[in-house]
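During the no-cost extension, the postdoctoral fellow (Dr. R.K.) reprocessed legacy sequence entries with the updated structure-token encoder. One reprocessed record is reproduced below for audit purposes.
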Amino acid sequence: MLFPWEVERLISLIEDENQGQCLTGNYFTFDTISYEIKKCDHTLTHNIGNPTNVAINDLKNSETHFQAFILQNLSLNKNNFLPQVFGKNLVWIGNEVFAGSGMQKIDIFTIEKIDETTYLYRLVELKHPKSSMNVNFAPMQLEYYINWAREDIGGHILGGKKFNIKPILIVLTRSFNTIPSNIIADIKKLQSISYAPEIYEIDFSLNINRLL
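Re-encoded structure tokens follow.
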């Protein structure tokens, strides 16, 4: 996936390569021999299968189902799905965002436009009862994501600073108030390097409990 500023850079490179000229027509294809986008005279059919919708009852199956359920409910611009958690005026939604050269990936990453010059970057770590890495690893994971993101310390998010990078832990749970106090305390300490860390519990009926 590409961040918004990467898309702008890519479009700029394409425009420069083509001296600002645009292809006109209705149908296009990619020539794998010449590595060019070309016009074609007919539509091309692609069998990409039928979309799969994740229902609330599927949440119990895995963290992947939990993640997919959230993503299919989030929307750009006027997001109404848990806006207090993921943001309202979303301009970008990403999942499994690679953070660095290792296998670390941010479960969900949203960018919310606050005003014409201000953006809030939410780094969301999900935990499920069947997660391979339990909640004890969450503070360390979120700290890694923050350091990877902050531009002012050599990170990767354009404009990312302590004041606009928000780490969030979301735990899917059968009952509330089960997160150990030491984990809550460790995530709260992340406020020294990020903006107002938050912790939420969500049960299998989508009731929500904020712990931090």
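The longest strand covers residues 90-98. The chain has two domains: 4-39, 56-210. The remaining legacy entries will be reprocessed before the final report is submitted.
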